[in-house]
Amino acid sequence: MKNSVLLVIDVQNDFCPGGLLAVNGGNEIVPLINKMAHEYANVVLTQDWHPAGHASFASQHDGLQPFTQIELSYGPQTLWPDHCIIGSSGAEFHNGLDLPYAELIIRKGFDKAIDSYSAFFENDHKTPTGLGGYLKERGFTRITCVGLAFDYCVRYSAEDAVKLGFKVEVIEAATRAIGLGGTVAATKKSFAERGVALR
Ligand code: VGL
Ligand code: ZN
Hints:
By secondary structure, this protein is α/β, with parallel strands linked by helices. Helix content is about 20%, strand content about 20%. It has helices at about 30-35, 130-135, 150-165, 185-195, and strands at about 5-10, 45-50, 70, 75-80, 105-110, 140-150, 165-175, 195-199. Helix 3 (about 150-165) runs parallel beside helix 4. The radius of gyration is 16 Å and the shape is globular. The two termini are about 15 Å apart. Pyrazine-2-carboxylic acid binds near residues 15, 80, 148, 149 and 152. The site of zinc ion has 7 residues, from loops.
């Protein structure tokens, strides 16, 4: 486990029941993540962290509803309800998450003009967050991904981690999905093709 890191993705109030972009059962994974974390010497968290008026918010696009897809300058973008606004209680970690020893919190989506599902690259698939460099410099070779949401931020984080040369697994029981028209099946197919181990 010395070369492994547990990457806990976006376990925040807005992605849990009662939140602004609630994922069904999002809260249910918290005890398992707390337990799993004891088996890892190294834990890193991500936090979705948007300024008000973020380009991924449907509220910024006249006449468009959340969960529709549009083209932005950097490519396709699903529009979301306003969520995880910097400094809001919705952007805070779920209060049951008990990972005081996590060594890094990487925030993403803070540029108003571009979303970032992945913990490694923004949605242009080019702009790095710095996490890849951090993990490589620390000597990690294996990443275990858990958190929210399975078919968005967990998916793209895991896939980018493989692209960067890490060995990657996703623990399905420690994730929950948003599930928009086939996104869960598409995620599983893509994991199989790209070599993300789903356990
Ligand atoms: C997420 C949609 C928008 C996620 C974040 O954490 O999966 N999904 N922002
Ligand atoms: Zn977001």
